[in-house]
Structure formats: C-alpha cells, structure tokens
Write a structure and sequence with these properties.
The protein has 306 residues and is an alpha/beta fold. The protein folds into 2 domains: 155 residues, Thiamin diphosphate (ThDP)-binding fold, Pyr/PP domains (Rossmann fold, 3-Layer(aba) Sandwich); 129 residues, 3-Layer(aba) Sandwich (Rossmann fold), CATH 3.40.50.920. 37% of the residues lie in helices and 21% in strands. It contains 11 helices and 12 strands. Helix 1 runs parallel beside helix 6 and helix 3 runs parallel beside helix 4. It is globular and about 60 Å long.
C-alpha cells in the first residue's frame, strides 16, 4: 500500500507545486522518486519527529500542503504536542501519513505498533482521520486528502495487502463505502483488517448468514447515516478494527448508535484487547493471537445473532 500511496502522491505533486514532503529519517526507497523530482520541496529533518511536525506546519502556513511521513506511531505519538498545538490549533494544511498502521511491523515489537492512534487522533479538533482498507482505497484517498484544506491523518498499510474492492472506488471523506449487501447483520471495518472481514463474510454465507460489509475508511467525521441505516435495515452491527478496544472505530460507532436512539441495536466489537502486545510475529499471526482473525469474526457474528 505504501508504494501505491507514493505513486499517487508523486503524480499529484507534478500537478500541484504546493505539495511538500517532510520526513524524519526513514528508509529512502519508496520516497526517492519524490526527492529526485522535487528536491526543493523535500525536507528530511532527521530523527526528530517533533521538529518535523513543526517544520511541516510552518511550510503549510505559507500557503502550501505539507505531508509528514514516517512509520507506525512515530509521526503521531512522538510529536503529539506539536500536532495538537501547531497543526490542529492553527487548522494548518498538514497531512500526517503513517506507514504500517496496526501491527503491520509485527516482528519489530510494540515500539513499532500503531494501535492507539485512531482514538488519540480523533480526539483532536479539526483533524480528519482516514484509514483505507486496500490499494484501491489508498490511491483514491490520496487525492481526497490533498483536496481537503486542513489537517488530515492518513493511516496507511505497509505492503502485500489484498484488494477488497474489485474496481477503483470513489473516496469521499466522511462517506463509508458499501462492499456488499446482506440483511442479517453488518460488519463495519476500518483499515487493512477489512480483508479478514471479507473472508469472514464469505464463510458466513456458506452457513446461510448473509451480512453487509461496510468500509468505514473515515473514522472522523464518521458516516452517521450509514451506521444508522445499518442498525435499522440489518440484524445487528459488528465492528472490526486493528486497534485498541478503547476509543477507536467501535467506540465511535457505539456513540452514534446511542446518540441516535438506536442503543437497542445488537452490537459487538472486535479489536485488540486493552493489553500490551508482548508477542512477536507476522501481522496475520498477531491478529489471530489477539482475537482479530477470520475465525474470531465468524464466531463473534454467530454469537451476536443467536
């Protein structure tokens, strides 16, 4: 997914001279084409994420579009104060991009996990929060992000993600994308774990349980209408996210259900339990270990509908 992101960003930068990229000393391979094409619009701040964010904000305040870019939690947790006070307070046109959301860097351990980001980022005023589920959404999301005049948090995957959509999609910030229709229940997901949801929906269909799949690529502002429609037209809602159980997609959907008077909807959440991830392994293996695998989704859905 990161390759797709960088390809789309490079294309956009050729058309828009306002686009600048600001980094904090990460691997150079995928971003080298941007640096070579636009050396005057490329800044590597070194291992200094707080400075990176401040520099990006200053560039944006001069009428430009700044992209901060690094892996996992480094562009967020290490510089949260600067995101809050510099970027969000000034409503600066800064796009905060992380590569490897969730546990994509599983073999590197908890220091490289990004599993609290959705909760933290959606609590910041003015900041839009998006998490594409596959390469097709990722490509479209780049252009939606750049078209929006203000701060955006973009949670990108890493590599090797399988497509959920079969064709290019229209990506509109704040509008969920329906992947499939089914009357029995709705699975609402965000990010690359959506492919597990697709496999789970296929397994459920073989048992006569037909569910809708909804890609909630925007966690803030969340698509309230899509959630309410799912509550009224299907037999329940199951949220799935590769994120701590506290404060992420599931919490956001629950808020909508309660605020809209749909609190009696059958509702379950699948997410990372509120624990520190102490195991080391691949992303798929870690998902299975912490209750976010395909079988976990199937079992939870069946239990909810009993």
């Amino acid at each position: 997914m990161r390759k797709a992101f960088n390809e789309e960003l490079l294309t956009a930068a050729h058309a828009d001279p306002r686009i600048h990229m600001v980094l904090a000393d990460i691997g150079y391979g995928e971003i080298e084409p941007f640096a070579n094409a636009f050396p005057s619009r490329f800044v590597n701040c070194g291992v200094a994420e707080q400075n990176m964010t401040g520099v990006a904000c200053g560039i944006a305040m001069e009428g430009n579009i700044s992209i901060t870019y690094s892996i996992a939690n480094f562009p967020t947790l290490r510089c949260l104060e600067q995101i809050r006070n510099d970027v969000c307070y000034h409503n600066a046109n800064v796009k905060i991009v992380i590569i490897g959301g969730g546990m994509a860097y599983g073999p590197l351990g908890i220091s490289h996990h990004s599993t609290e980001d959705l909760a933290i980022m959606r609590a910041l005023p003015n900041l839009k929060v998006i998490a594409p589920c596959d390469i097709l959404e990722a490509r479209a999301a780049v252009h939606a992000m750049l078209a929006y005049n203000g701060p955006v948090y973009y949670r990108c995957g890493y590599k090797g993600e399988k497509n959920i959509h079969s064709a290019p999609v229209k990506f509109e910030i704040g509008k969920a994308i329906k992947v499939s229709d089914g009357p029995d229940a709705t699975i609402i997901f965000t990010g690359t774990i959506g492919y597990n949801c697709k496999l789970a929906a296929e397994a459920l269909a073989k048992e006569g349980i037909n569910v809708s799949l909804l890609s909630m690529h925007t966690v803030k502002p969340i698509d309230k209408d899509a959630i309410i429609e799912a509550a009224k037209k299907t037999g329940g809602i199951l949220t799935v996210e590769e994120h701590n159980i506290c404060g992420g997609l599931g919490s956001a959907v629950a808020e909508v259900l309660m605020d809209s008077g749909n609190g009696d909807t059958r509702f379950k959440r699948i997410a990372l339990p509120d624990v520190n991830v102490s195991k080391i392994g691949s992303q798929d293996w870690l998902r299975d270990q912490y209750g976010m695998g395909v079988n976990d989704i199937v079992k939870t859905m069946k239990a909810m509908l009993q």
